[in-house]
Amino acid sequence: MSEESINKLKQILNITFPNFYLPDEIVDLTIGACEEWDSLGNYALLMMVEQEFNLVFTMKELSEIRSIEQIIARLKNN
Amino acid sequence: MGSSFLPPFKYIWDSLEESFEIHFSNIGNWGEVLESANLKKDVVGIFLMEDTSFDKESSQIEKMQNVLSIIRQRLTTSDKIFVFCFSTYTPSNIITKSKSPGRLSSVMIELQKLCEDFRHFYTIDLDHLFIGMGLSASYSYRNWYFSNSRLTNLAWAKLLPAINKVLTRIQSGPKKILVLDCDNTIWGGIIGEDGISGIALGQDGIGKAFKDFQGAVMELRQTGTLLGLASKNNMEDVWEVFDNHSQMLLKRSDIIVSRIDWNDKASNLLQMSLELDIGLDSFVFWDDNPFERQQVRNHLPEVTTVEPPEAVELWPQYLRELDLFSNFYVTAEDLDKQNQYRSRLAFQNFQTTTQKNDDYLNKISLSATLVSIDEQNLSRAEQLSMKTNQFNLRSIRLSASEIRDFINHQGNFGYLVHLKDIFGDHGLVALFLVSTKEDIAFVESFNMSCRVFGRKLEYWMVHKIEQASERLGVLSIVFGSRPTVKSRPVISKFFESGVFVRLGNFPDSAVTLVQQTEYRLNEEEFYEVKKSLAGNDVRGIYE
């Protein structure tokens, strides 16, 4: 995963969860990491990832992907 | 915002939240928004016909009719703005649809009727809005099954600016004037080099596109947009094309103002703005040359400089889809705007060639009449209230329904003013609204179009308010003043004329009058009319 992509993910997290103070390392973050990141927040996050990385998650992926690690794995397969 | 689905994410709304405060209704409770508790809020509703398909009890058309009848009830009980965003798309196929092109007609007729019956009802047709992106990019089944909301992020990104445009256009009028370049803009080629027979205009190919672009410009001109020319050329060359080229749709008489010389275009636009007394923020500039566009953008950021598509064949459509000049209603004043500004320019020339005193006003046969506000001219009254930036004493903005309510209220009166002189029929150019309580009258609203400045019409209006008040037994007439940056110069001049006495504060007994308008008193200054003076000034000129 390039540094550029990680930075893009950080930006996406910042926009989606504006009150969340991001740690330097984001790879370990999962749903519940902040109050806003509930199931609706997770959906908002994935919609933003779709838009910014220009991909489409399947229905199944939308319900299963719940962490940055999973998002990165999915981006690698793209 | 009504919502039967999860509220879209915050980042999507940011653009709209800069200008508006947004509340969401609870999930599944859009009906609640329309009920009495929220009658004081503007509503944006989004309705996708396909969303009703899971419920098979009644047809989708019946369900939409049902929604529309609930909306009709809401519109009858609340005069707050309602923007209805709707999609009538439902999955179907060629064979089924081939025999029912009119299956939605009853719904469309009711929507149209709602628009006509209620001035505060507006629609956005989502299918039309999304047509450029394609439906599959706009509506997502995955999103629907996952979150009960079909719209994709792309669709939201398209829809929110559209909602924003409708809501802001309600409050502020469209642009007033389109200033065009000539070479490679209204015709192909360079007149100074190619000559009148060498330019591309009307011939098959690109010539047709330029002619059609002129056609689109003429459509704007016919609904009240003023036209100007800013061209680096020899003046005679340009006018020769206007006068003698058989394919020109634009005529010399369609152009209200022009600067055809070798000066920079920003200075020329600035001069036009002064000449017409139209603010730069009402100007739109169209030029094929990126250098000229950049120069105008740098020097006059208030002017809207259009970034036209590179390919000229796309220009006619681009201009027709541009909403800068569009309004919800076109009034008789709009249609005649060209003549009104022309007579204004003539008046200015006359003014500079005659002495600057009342003599010249005596010579121009001024004739003003009061016109009662009724349903036919209500939209003009609203326009004067919403769009007058300079001569608007209290800077208050009233909608049509607020004006109607005001007039119907016991003890209130108000009129539009019609003005004519030797320079032309100026139409309905001013509005005043007055409330009275016992022996005090308060001028709640006093607006005059800047087109007719310099004719002492404002003092004639004061005199008319005096006459009307006298009949109601009023002893004292009070004006409020709450100037903005734009209105301060004219307002100061108005109150310093000797007709008024400044009051220390607003007469206590009349406070209830002002409260009707919900504007705070501590931001205002108050002036009382000196009885003996007001009429003197205008008697000779207008009677």
Q: Whole-number average pLDDT of chain B?
A: 86
Helix content of chain A: 55-70%
Beginning-to-end CA distance, first to last residue of chain A: 12 Å
> What's the oligomerization state?
heterodimer
Which two protein chains have the largest interface (Cβ within 8 Å of the partner's Cβ), and how many residues from each? A-B, 15 and 10 residues
Helical residue percent band of chain B: 40-55%
Which value, in Å, is the CA radius of gyration of chain A?
11 Å
Structural class of chain B: alpha/beta
Residue runs with pLDDT of under 50 for 5 or more positions of chain B: 1-6
Whole-number radius of gyration of chain B? 27 Å
Largest sheet of chain B: 8 strands, mixed
Overall spatial form of chain B: flat
SS summary, helix count of chain A: 4
* Proportion in β-strands of chain A: under 5%
Could you say which structural class the secondary elements and strand pairing of chain A correspond to?
mainly alpha
From the spread of the alpha carbons, the general shape of chain A counts as globular
Cα separation of the termini of chain B: 54 Å
Describe it.
- The complex is a heterodimer of chains A (78) and B (543).
- Chain A contains 4 helices and no strands.
- In chain A, helix 1 crosses helix 2.
- Chain B has 543 residues and is of the alpha/beta class.
- In chain B, the strands form 3 sheets. In chain B, strands 9, 10, 11, 12, 13, 14, 15 and 16 form an 8-stranded mixed sheet that branches. In chain B, strands 6-5-4-7-8 form a 5-stranded parallel sheet. In chain B, strands 1-2-3 form a 3-stranded parallel sheet, with helices on both faces.
- Chain B starts with 9 loop residues before the first helix and ends with a helix.
- At the A-B interface, helix 2 and helix 3 of A face helix 8 of B.
